[in-house]
Amino acid sequence: MTRWRVAALADDLTGALEVGAKFASRGLDARVFAWPNLDIETPCGVLVVDAETRMLSASEAAERMRALACEIARRGAELIYHKTDSTLRGNIAAEMGALGDVFGEREIVFAPAYPALGRVVRGGRLYVESRPVEETAFALDPTHPVRTGDIQALVEGVPRVTIADGASEADLDATAGEVLRRAGSLIACGAAGLAAHLASGFGEKTEIAWPRLHRALVVNGSLHERSLEQVRRARQAWRGRPDWDFCDRDAAARQWAEGGYDGAIVFGGDTAYRILAARDFPALAPLGEILPGVPVTRCGDSWLVTKAGGFGAPDLLCRLRELLGQ
Predict the structure, then answer these.
(1) CA dihedral in degrees (319, 13, 119, 314; nearest 10)?
(2) Beta-carbon neighbour count of residue 254 at 10 Å?
(3) What is the set of domains in the chain, with CATH numbers?
(4) pTM of the model
(5) The pLDDT of residue 100 is above 90
(6) Is the pLDDT of residue 217 over 60?
């Protein structure tokens, strides 16, 4: 039975793919599996599981994470990583508690900062682009509105949790160094910003040959204004160039399943998950991040480019076309 170098659990697909890309860019063989298609016996150095718990109740999320953690404990890993949302959405405390139950007396180090995307932690509070997260658009999230950026209050009742501030990349790098030194006695939790610094401890960055997408499907499943603006900019810039097609999120799974596309560019974890389900969850092999927070993943016989909703420059889609288009 092969022991993984890294075993990571995420609560949605975009987060899982992002973590996989961080380690793949360092030359590690990373594989991502989405619930319920968990072929975890596939040999790989880095196992990442999308547990799909973001939309569950806290108790359901804890139960699923506990079951997955038992599988990881049975097999063993050098580093155990719990990937959480960078704006504190989801069932973070319930999932942490379940992991703590399985892994006994291990300390949990929680570093939700992601300075590269404007998410920083100062004095135990999360700020997004210099504003308290509870005063941003994430407070209006229709399924998981963020009520507080007070991280200690968020994880109240979870034992053995240390919250790491992260006002800069140097802060995250220091936290990652401590985690790697003590990897066998703790669980690392945090956004993909922490994963990037942890991955750097496993090897140097590798040269990546990015694919060319001659025909791609572009799907925005996010209601965040940042994503909506990125789509508006691209529609205006691409007028008269139909080889990259825009598609409504409700029709995306059917349209992509019908074939004819080299890949799909998808905003939003739930939308990406539905698209994968339409193709019976093909194998996912991350290649790396082509832009910060934008992983490129081999998906069966095509490519999947994903992004969570609320970040990125207004011209992000235009930039992707320059990098991946004909």
Answers:
(1) 20
(2) 12
(3) 4-202 (3.40.50.10840), 216-324 (3.40.980.20)
(4) 0.94
(5) yes
(6) yes
